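User: quick one, fold this
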Amino acid sequence: MLVSVIIPHLRGTETLLNVLEDLEHEIEVTGDVEVILIDNASTDGSVATAKERFSWVTVVSLPVNQGYAGGCNEGIKESSGKWVWLINDDIRIDPGALSRALSIAESAPDIAAVQPKILSLTKPGYFDYAGGAGGLIDSFGYSFALGRIGGELERDLGQYDESREIFWASGTACLWRRETLNEIGLLDDSFFAHMEEIDLAWRAWNAGWRIMSAPESVVKHLGGGTLSYHAWKKMYLNHRNNLITILKNSDNKKLFWLLPARFILDHLIAFAEVASGKFKRLSAVSFAWTVFTAKLPVWLKHRKILKTIVTHKNKNIAIPVYKGCILFAYARGIRSTSTIAKRQ
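Assistant:
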């Protein structure tokens, strides 16, 4: 099997049918593709409708909602493809997107994953919040993307249409090499949702793999279907999981100053929102730090396990990290990653 497509699903009949319809075309073009739909304890009848209409879909039913990470992991375990394409159930796929992503993925043996260009379905012509044209990270562990800083989305003018190394590939649509996953492990299902793809990408870079953008491959994302972008739980999970990711993957010397710096910066962000009348961020940040600290022995155990991964690839590979702090860049009025990307 060449490609296994994994789709974790909770709710939404129309969006699910749309993406499966798009996948029919991708299967015709690419061939040798299996599609595994993860029923994350859906209750709206959407899975049964999808299976009735698309008989070629394999359904894996879970007794409880295991989130994005847990759902994808179950699908990966049931799949057999050389490549694993993890996609959200609320995207639309431009014709040929899969084959174009594969052409980049197979262009070098050390490429672990690729991300297509992700555009917004609700704001045509603009990049999507969840990954843009490729995920980036700064020296403080804050993530952003080509085409998106904070909540500011850029219009797609072809400015990121050349394939390049990126730090992380968005879980909205990311194509992973099974060999890499066998080596570094699957998504961390303790995350439940959010940041798990950044943790996975960081592990891949630390093990000597590379991640690339595939801008000729295009998908469009609806977004916010599971959790609203402004939901308290989303804020909490993003902050907590980001801290876990940093602890698991940063080197020892960096951790000495990074975690104290992040405590200050995270709370500065929260108090800045309080000053503008938004109070959810402060409680989300405070709770995230409380849970992170309380379970520190658990995360340290995960870190110790990761350090045992052995690779025969080049460990001195240059990891693409923005040397500054994206928060400070945003405060200076920078709203485009075009300039920032050149400084990596």
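User: anything notable?
Assistant: Residues 252-275 form the longest helix (24 residues).
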